[in-house]
Amino acid sequence: MGRGSKDKRDIYYRQAKEEGYRARSAFKLLQLDEEFDIFRNVERVVDLCAAPGSWSQVLSQKLRPTENDRVKIVAVDLQAMAPLPGVIQMQGDITKEATAQEIVQHFDGGYADLVVSDGAPDVTGLHDIDEYVQSQLILAALNISTHVLKRGGTFIAKIFRGRDVQLLYAQLETFFDVVTCSKPRSSRNSSIEAFVVCVGYNPPEGYTPHMSNPLLDHDYDKYENALVGVNRAIVPFLACGDLNCFDSDKTYPLADGAVLKAPTQTPISPPYAKAVRLKKEAAVGLGNVHVERATDSATENQ
Ligand SMILES: C[S@@+](CC[C@H](N)C(=O)[O-])C[C@H]1O[C@@H](n2cnc3c(N)ncnc32)[C@H](O)[C@@H]1O
């Protein structure tokens, strides 16, 4: 299979298991770091939408190679997450004010050097809706950042490079000195996913963070998408990850003697669990129907 392969169990999936990461997403953060050196002088981090926790694993490995009390990593997700050393975990919805407040409290009035968000909604396949929900997650992440990020701090978030991405760039550029859109090699080409790397938190003069602050007006086409020329924010785009590293859209054979491993951390209560249960129950029900039909025809044949 070539670059167009739909094989989900790609090389990064396998490598994640080899290296003990809970998800292949770990390599996206590692490759963003290779390109942007995002962990330099970082001690306090918020990992938003963190489950199952591969980004938190990377953060923990990079920032506390030995136990370090100064390092604080706060991880949040809707889903429960198995514990990780040195990571404070919270279960909650980042678009809710109460969650944002709880995160802020963990910093005891202090500030974070870095906020990362790999949030993704359960994709419906309806692009407009998916993009809208994704933008809500980014805005929630940005809003939380305006409360906890120190001046000069870094914000990294997953985006979908869709129709309305210009508005997002413009919005981010009002809060950060430099905004770059980046696509790590481990992110599949077939996906519109990319990451904004926003360096140098520098909110507009007089900006007061509010928990319930609507950062965006959603009438995109009427306003921001109608902007032209210098009024339109065009941020640099950078593919990151060395050209020699694995291509996420290519399928690689297993290395000689390689042993297939189980996932490092199976999901605790995945959102698809109910669907799997219903499918199993339906299959059992269908099995009964087959048995009944078989019995009926056996009786007819007698
Ligand atoms: C791609 S996964 C994150 C993977 C994670 N970075 C890792 O490395 O393991 C996206 C996560 O976003 C979370 N999520 C989606 N909407 C959320 C919300 N409103 N609040 C908190 N988490 C959310 C999902 O529960 C899911 O675990």
TrEMBL record:
Predominant subcellular localization, coarse grouping? cytoplasm
Gene Ontology molecular function: any one: tRNA methyltransferase activity
Which of this chain's residues are annotated to bind S-adenosyl-L-methionine?
A: G53, W55, D77, D93, D118
- Reaction(s) catalyzed by this protein? cytidine(32)/guanosine(34) in tRNA + 2 S-adenosyl-L-methionine = 2'-O-methylcytidine(32)/2'-O-methylguanosine(34) in tRNA + 2 S-adenosyl-L-homocysteine + 2 H(+)
Q: Where is the Ribosomal RNA methyltransferase FtsJ domain?
A: 21-201
Please list which residues make up the signal peptide.
Answer: none
- Which keywords belong to this entry? Cytoplasm, Methyltransferase, S-adenosyl-L-methionine, Transferase, tRNA processing
Q: Which InterPro entries did the record assign?
A: RNA_methyltr_E_TRM7, RNA_methyltr_RlmE, RNA_MeTrfase_FtsJ_dom, rRNA-MeTfrase_E, SAM-dependent_MTases_sf
Q: Name one GO biological process term.
A: cytoplasmic translation
The EC number(s) attached to this protein equal 2.1.1.205
Active site as annotated: K158
Q: What Pfam family does this protein match (any one)?
A: FtsJ
Q: Where in the cell is it found?
A: Cytoplasm; Nucleus
State whether keyword Hydrolase applies.
no
- Name the enzyme group at the top EC level: transferase
Gene Ontology CC annotation, any one: nucleus
- PANTHER family, alphabetized: RIBOSOMAL RNA METHYLTRANSFERASE, TRNA (CYTIDINE(32)_GUANOSINE(34)-2'-O)-METHYLTRANSFERASE-RELATED
Q: Which family does it belong to?
A: Belongs to the class I-like SAM-binding methyltransferase superfamily. RNA methyltransferase RlmE family. TRM7 subfamily.
Q: What does this protein do?
A: Methylates the 2'-O-ribose of nucleotides at positions 32 and 34 of the tRNA anticodon loop of substrate tRNAs.
Q: What is this protein called?
A: Putative tRNA (cytidine(32)/guanosine(34)-2'-O)-methyltransferase
List the source organism. Answer: Monosiga brevicollis (Choanoflagellate)
Source taxonomy: Eukaryota, Choanoflagellata, Craspedida, Salpingoecidae, Monosiga
